[in-house]
Amino acid sequence: MSKPSPALVDALFRLSFVLQGHLVRLAAAHDLSLVQLRLLGILRDREPGMLELARHLELEKSSSSGLIDRAEARGLVERVPSKEDRRAATVRMTARGRKLARALEDEVSRELGALLAVLSEPERVKLTALVERVVERAKPPA
Amino acid sequence: MSKPSPALVDALFRLSFVLQGHLVRLAAAHDLSLVQLRLLGILRDREPGMLELARHLELEKSSSSGLIDRAEARGLVERVPSKEDRRAATVRMTARGRKLARALEDEVSRELGALLAVLSEPERVKLTALVERVVERAKPPA
DNA sequence: TCCCTTGGTTCGTGATAAGAACTACTTTAG
DNA sequence: CTAAAGTAGTTCTTATCACGAACCAAGGGA
């Protein structure tokens, strides 16, 4: 359980604030909250029910209900009633939502690209590998 | 302006969500919001005025006013009237706030330590260097 | 001195999250 | 087959928190 160096802890948190800051600003530019942005990210490759969605976003189901209300009102997602279970519905992105998600993804990677330009390609590869191993370890608890 | 690989973008954002998630949970365990946590972080080595503080936190001055109200009510910080300018006051951490900040810092680095244990010491050093260069570049725009 | 700027606070409003209560459907135990 | 228990979602009330506009002093020229 050797403590990591303060420099590393500090650098990582600074990085995380920088990244989140970018996300928040970019989302805001499209009138989205950070949670709505995460929602779009999640729906990119999933079509979860409310409950599952709430779990992903770490929200109460009542909160995600409201979240989807708002997103649906803006035409970004739609509730799809389940055929098998008449209580359930899944949430799916609309074409409009998908387009917005794609645009955001683009802007994000453009901005991040500017930051990462300080590193050489081999360095970026190395960084990718290191970070992936760390986040990998973070998954299990979830 | 070469786009970074999606894998890297993805890994970095995943990491940033993991880190922020830790912060949020830890802060919540002490009944603090993320912003209050950042406040403590900022006050560790500064004694800013309201306006300067708002800038650091990217809040409106009215918001930081309320923020400090709440933190002050909990005895974590105090407003120190400026001697030179009778309008102004600076915000300073109290002993109680400092103690809490220290405890949080400890918990944070303990949790992060568990994550970073997947890397060897040389790898951590490498990671530190890479991340520092990236965040360094992020500073200027601020 | 008069006016403009600056540091802060107050107040009203809006967004969002939690939790409890409720509806409707499914599943399970007898 | 039916009653009881569980599950998926919604609704409603409440609390937090951020913003913006209005406001109050107190500085600082000209």
Please characterize this protein's 3D structure.
In chain A, strands 1-2 form a two-stranded antiparallel ribbon. The two termini of chain A are 21 Å apart. Chain A is 67% helix and 7% strand. Chain A has helices spanning 6-29, 34-43, 50-57, 61-73, 95-116, 121-138, and strands at 77-81, 89-93. The model of chain A has no long low-confidence stretch (mean pLDDT 93). The longest helix of chain A has 24 residues, at 6-29. In chain A, helix 1 packs across helix 5 and helix 3 (50-57) packs across helix 4. The radius of gyration of chain A is 18 Å and the shape is globular. The first copy, chain A, has 142 residues and is mostly helical. Chain A is built from six helices and two strands; from the N terminus they run H-H-H-H-E-E-H-H. At the A-B interface, helix 1, helix 5 and helix 6 of A face helix 1, helix 5 and helix 6 of B. Chain A binds a DNA duplex (30 and 30 nucleotides) through residues 33, 35, 49-51, 59-67, 69-70, 82, 85-89.
